[in-house]
Structure formats: structure tokens, C-alpha cells
């Protein structure tokens, strides 16, 4: 799970890869991994990074919200209060998830 989340993090950094990643139900997979491996800092950090990257797009933001991504990010941040990587990734993901068209 750790390496899978890390690979998805790398792929989602480039917008041109999103279609392929999203075709694999990436958001569901990342949410599930973050729920199942709450103690694994890397899964949480890289999972937040994946959601952060995908949440740049309005459609993806809505999908992430529908699938419980916000709750997953908050859970990761609560579970790993003293890990700067999880906190940074979580804040960045929440920032992108909070963005709404028409504001900014």
C-alpha cells in the first residue's frame, strides 16, 4: 500500500497522467488505503499528496468529497499530529479541496 500510494503520488503530479490514474479508480483506492493503514505515515502522507494533486480539478474535488476524502485527510492529520509531512500534505489537500469555482 505504501509503495502504491507513492507511485500514485508521482503520477498525479502531472496533469497529463490524471486520466489514466482516474480510470483505475485512484480516489477510491487511496481512500481505502488511508482508512486501512492509519498507522503508516507514508500511506497517509502520500495519500494526502495524491488527493492534493487531483483536487486541483473541479470534477476531481467533487469526487474526492463524495468519497470521503476530506474525512480521510482529517483522520490522517489527527492520527499523526507530530509528523510534519502528514500535516503539510493534509493542509495542502484541504486547501485544494476547499476551493470552489467563482471564489479565489
Automatic annotation (TrEMBL):
Bilayer-crossing regions: none
Keywords (A to Z) from UniProt: Repeat
Record bears the keyword Repeat: yes
Coiled coil: none
Key word Repeat present: yes
PANTHER family, A to Z: ARMADILLO REPEAT-CONTAINING PROTEIN 6 (PTHR22895)
Name used for this protein in its record: Uncharacterized protein
Lineage of the species this protein comes from: Eukaryota, Sar, Alveolata, Dinophyceae, Noctilucales
Amino acid at each position: 500500500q505504501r509503495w502504491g500510494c507513492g507511485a500514485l503520488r508521482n503520477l498525479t503530479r502531472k496533469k497529463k497522467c490524471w486520466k489514466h490514474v482516474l480510470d483505475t479508480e485512484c480516489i477510491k483506492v487511496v481512500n481505502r488505503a488511508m482508512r486501512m493503514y492509519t498507522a503508516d505515515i507514508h500511506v497517509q502522507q502520500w495519500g494526502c499528496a495524491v488527493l492534493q494533486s487531483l483536487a486541483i480539478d473541479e470534477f476531481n474535488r467533487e469526487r474526492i468529497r463524495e468519497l470521503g476524502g476530506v474525512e480521510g485527510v482529517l483522520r490522517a492529520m489527527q492520527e499523526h499530529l507530530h509528523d510534519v509531512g502528514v500535516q503539510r500534505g493534509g493542509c495542502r489537500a484541504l486547501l485544494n479541496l476547499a476551493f470552489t469555482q467563482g471564489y479565489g
